[in-house]
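Protein data:
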Amino acid sequence: MVAARTTPKDPEKRSEKGSEKGSEKILAWLRNHPEWSARELGESLAIFSWAVEKHLQALKHEGLIRRIGPDPKRGRWEVVE
């Protein structure tokens, strides 16, 4: 017996949906923890920090977040509403 597919056949659609969900989760965490790094976000969301960084870049490009502060170590994220 073969299990039914629950994911789209098109890999682009699959990655878009996963990417949207990941970005939404990251935005929610950043609203509550703006000082967190990509590593801390990744640990909380159980995803790799490089994946978090990819989401952060996309969110910055879309104008949904921006980094505030003198440098990456002492800055924080701001969610643009």
Observations:
- The domain at 13-75 is CATH 1.10.10 (Arc Repressor Mutant, subunit A).
